Amino acid sequence: MAKGGVPGWDPNVLRVARERSGMTQQELAKRMRVSRSTIANYEHSRAAPPPPVLRDLSRVLGCRPKDFLDESGRGLSVLRSLAGLSQKDVLERLDSDLTLSTYQKLEQGRVRRLRRADAEDLARVLGVSVDEVIEAHGHDIRRREVSTTEEPAS
Question: Do 63 and 23 meet the contact criterion of CB atoms below 8 Å apart?
Fold first, then answer.
């Protein structure tokens, strides 16, 4: 599994898109202004790109950001990643009084109640519908509930 970066990263999509475009890893790296090893890490699940890099990869390869993500990614962090934003970017664009700590807890599913006004504001910032924000938040809560009820491996 890829470390860091966007959740749900599917490295095979990057490899296929790059090959379809006729670029080598080195050529893509040059266009992206990153090292070839960075591209190799993205393609071999050693790392996932951060949201702004995902946006740039999409532009360079002519894909949509969500094309690079598997179906398991449906939470708020995915919506944020697809918008090419960091958590701090989201907070800077919000008209609400959400703090970074509270927003992080929302993404982690640790805050069960999402105020309607915050959902509307997040939808505006993330470029999605209010229903998508509410659904993503519910996904985060369910994912947290599952992870906290799973028994530790012995």
Answer: no
What is the residue-level pLDDT of the chain in tens, covering all 154 positions?
455 688 888 899 999 999 999 999 999 999 999 999 999 999 998 899 998 899 899 999 999 888 888 766 678 988 998 888 889 999 999 988 899 999 999 999 999 999 999 999 999 999 999 999 999 999 899 888 887 776 555 4
- Residues 135 and 150: their CA atoms lie apart, in Å, by 23
Q: Where are the alpha helices (DSSP H) in 3-129?
A: 11-20, 25-32, 36-43, 51-61, 76-82, 87-93, 100-107, 116-126
Q: Read off the pTM.
A: 0.67
